[in-house]
Design brief:
Blueprint: H1 2-24, E1 26-33, H2 63-77, E2 82-86, H3 100-103, H4 105-113, E3 117-119, H5 128-143, E4 149-151, E5 155-156, H6 165-172, E6 176-177, E7 179-184, E8 187-195, H7 197-201, E9 210-211, H8 214-228, E10 233-239, E11 243-244, E12 250-251, H9 253-260, E13 266-268, E14 280-282, E15 286-289, E16 297-306, E17 309-319, H10 328-346, E18 356-359, H11 371-385, E19 389-393, E20 408-410, H12 411-415, E21 433-439, H13 440-456, E22 463-466, E23 468-472, E24 482-489, E25 493-496, E26 506-512, H14 513-516, H15 522-525, H16 564-573, E27 584-585, E28 597-599, H17 605-609, H18 614-640
Parallel strand pairs: 1-2, 2-3, 3-4, 4-6, 8-10, 10-13, 13-15, 18-27, 19-26, 23-28
Antiparallel strand pairs: 1-16, 5-9, 7-8, 11-12, 14-15, 16-17, 18-20, 19-22, 21-26, 23-24, 24-25
Helix pairs in contact: 4-5, 5-6, 11-16
Length: 641
């Protein structure tokens, strides 16, 4: 009887230990993407994208290839718990987003690919809250309860405004939630989503919505998930971003939030389009991940759940390229979306989705020191608005022109350069163009503000110009650095602009309403140091940007907005066909690559005072006077001693 009793005792002691070891041995996988930005086709000239075959093109990306890779990775995991998550901005950036309110295409594809959840990024609001609500309705009608759970923990509705009521209805119905609990393989996962402060700042169309401070909301979400929902793993879906410092360390909102809010186990990030080859381990344990952008990669994080919480076991950033054959069913869906785009968006303007339009001799980039693409875009705006000058910011140019194997650019490729925005008087996709009149001194003020914005922020604020070029001296005081301005173009030459108050002539400026609207704010931006009053051709002040809209068809009632994307297509289509192949040719000569903002760093008095205003004169005269006064004070004090 002793042996059975001893065995029973051993068994009673070992069973809890075995259970503990089993619990500690649980593993799971997080698959993740971010910033799809409606990039359903490959990353390259669309006419070279061949998802049905492998090893025959150099394009990367494509949602059909992603579908194949997801099937492969899920099969490799077997019965292990797997979550597929997205870090936001799944829409806005290609022609597909122009019909997303009608089709909900991106969300429908995410449902087909089996996404569990996605956070709402800033671009999900580009068609305003009502537009987002319409997109969700269209996707829900097509996919039902298969849609991924949309998360937004810090979004706040305005009870006094009807403009977010339809989105609030989706929130009340559970299509959008502050958090979600999923149970897989005996593990309880708690998910919540945040839109970062930086992302909110570049989201002018979110009104009347507001967004609470992420750190405060994160603390409340962690407490709710840990203490009330009793989850094992807390996952933040974050549209905030990370950035690498000069010393190689990683900072940004996603890193800083984890440092301030204990209890977050995993961060699936987005917004900064960062392809992290390995997670950033905050506090040595919490992985912060991003998978680049535009479906070029799939991130795969393998974790082990231990008594001390989840621990990283392995991470892989899978490339999505021509080694993967696209899933046929997904390709068929995309082809249907193309047809709708052509019928609804392009055909009325005389274009088709796959129409070859131009040929480029090289890849044109958005790098601040690569002038050709910025010049091309602003030349298109100037010609469309028939203005003396035009300007934009580098950040509004959303894609490079990729040469690929043959350099042929289709309508869908060129649209990606200027895809953003929505109308001022209509709900049609694209920023409309505006035209206003200002004096020569006001042109200088506009350039001064553009300079300060670029020098205080980053390359996305780098000014792109047409119809003028100018020099500036960085040694002069802010808001008074412009030395000389010339009006004209490289084909017909330039003439110096008289910047004195005696020049009362008005000059026309063209821009998108998104960029041009800042001219009304220049007195506030410069703290009253500069003044610009946008006017009509007769010199009467314009109340706001709507009063400056270009009317594309004066024969029709109301204002027919002329969108930036159409202006670009029209301009490129009108370029010369230099080789007679039926396609316009984008030039790559000295004129096309002209530098229009010229840095002239000099302490020469002539440079310091050329066309200077009161600011620079005050500093130039005030500093020597101050030196003289200090020397005089020192000399008198020395004499007393």
């Amino acid at each position: 009887m002793r042996l059975p009793a001893l065995s029973a005792l051993c068994l009673s002691l070992c069973l809890p230990l075995a259970a503990t070891l089993h619990a500690a041995d649980k593993t799971f996988t997080i698959l993740h993407t971010n910033d799809w930005q409606s990039r359903l086709l490959g990353f390259g000239p669309n006419n070279e994208f061949t998802p049905a075959t492998v090893n025959d093109d150099s394009t990367v990306g494509g949602v059909a290839r992603l579908a194949t890779l997801l099937d492969e990775r899920r099969a490799a995991m077997g019965d292990e718990p797997v979550l597929l998550l997205d870090g936001g901005d799944f829409t806005m950036g290609t022609l597909f987003h122009t019909v997303t309110r009608d089709l909900g295409g991106e969300l429908r594809l995410m449902a087909e690919l089996g996404y569990d959840a996605a956070v709402l990024g800033n671009h999900e609001f580009d068609f305003r809250p009502q537009g987002l609500a319409t997109m969700i309705s269209a996707a829900a009608k097509a996919q039902g309860d298969r849609l991924p759970q949309l998360l937004s923990s810090n979004m706040r509705f305005d009870p006094a405004s009807p403009d977010d009521d339809r989105l609030k209805a989706h929130y009340d119905a559970g299509l959008i939630k502050p958090y979600k609990v999923l149970e897989r393989g005996g593990i309880r996962f708690g998910l919540f989503g945040l839109l970062g402060e930086g992302a909110v700042q570049v989201s002018p169309m979110t009104k009347p919505l507001s967004f609470a401070k992420p750190v405060e909301v994160a603390r409340a979400m962690v407490q709710q998930l840990r203490e009330v929902e009793k989850v094992d793993v807390v996952i933040l879906l974050s549209h905030m971003g990370v950035k690498q410092e000069a010393n190689g360390s990683w900072r940004g909102e996603e890193v800083e939030l984890v440092e301030q809010v204990p209890g977050i186990d995993i961060v699936v990030g987005g917004h900064s389009h960062t392809a992290l080859p390995r997670p950033i381990l905050v506090n040595g344990k919490t992985p912060v991940m991003q998978a680049g952008s535009e479906i070029q990669h799939l991130g795969e994080l393998r974790m082990r759940l231990t008594d001390n919480g989840p621990q990283v076991q392995a991470y892989t950033l899978h490339p999505i390229n021509d080694k993967l054959a696209g899933k046929a069913a997904v390709t068929a869906d995309v082809e249907q979306f193309k047809q709708v785009v052509t019928e609804q968006m392009l055909a009325p303007k005389g274009y088709q989705f796959e129409q070859a339009l131009a040929q480029t001799p090289r890849t044109l980039t958005r790098a601040y020191d690569d002038q050709l693409l910025g010049n091309l875009v602003t030349d298109a705006i100037r010609h469309a608005t028939q203005s003396d000058i035009a300007f934009t910011g580098n950040g509004t140019i959303r894609d490079d022109v990729m040469q690929g194997a043959h350099g042929v650019q289709s309508v869908s490729d060129l649209f990606r350069i200027a895809p953003l925005g929505i109308g001022e008087t209509d709900d049609a996709p694209g920023y409309p163009l505006m035209k206003a009149y200002v004096s020569a001194q006001e042109i200088k003020s506009v350039l001064e503000v553009l300079l300060v914005a670029y020098q205080m922020r980053d390359d996305s604020y780098y000014p792109r110009l047409s119809g003028l070029k100018f020099t500036y001296n960085p040694y002069r005081v802010p808001f008074d650095r412009v030395e000389e301005v010339w009006l004209g173009n490289p084909q017909q030459g330039y003439q110096a602009l008289d910047l004195s108050a005696a020049n009362t002539q008005l000059y026309s400026i063209g821009a998108t309403t998104y960029v041009g609207s800042f001219t009304w704010l220049i007195p506030d931006i410069s703290k009253g140091l500069l003044s610009v009053v946008p006017k009509d051709a007769q010199g009467q002040p314009l109340a706001d940007v709507k009063a400056a809209l270009i009317d594309a068809d004066a024969k029709r009632a109301g204002v027919q907005e002329y969108k930036e994307w159409q202006a670009l297509l029209d301009h490129v289509r009108g370029l010369p066909d230099s080789n007679g192949d039926g396609l316009a040719d984008i030039a790559d000569d000295d004129a096309a690559n002209e530098l229009r903002m010229i840095r002239h760093a000099s302490f020469n008095p002539t440079s310091l005072l050329r066309n200077a205003g009161a600011l620079q004169w005050s500093v130039t005269l005030g500093v020597p006077l101050l030196v003289v006064l200090l020397l005089l004070w020192w000399w008198r004090r020395k004499r007393r001693v």
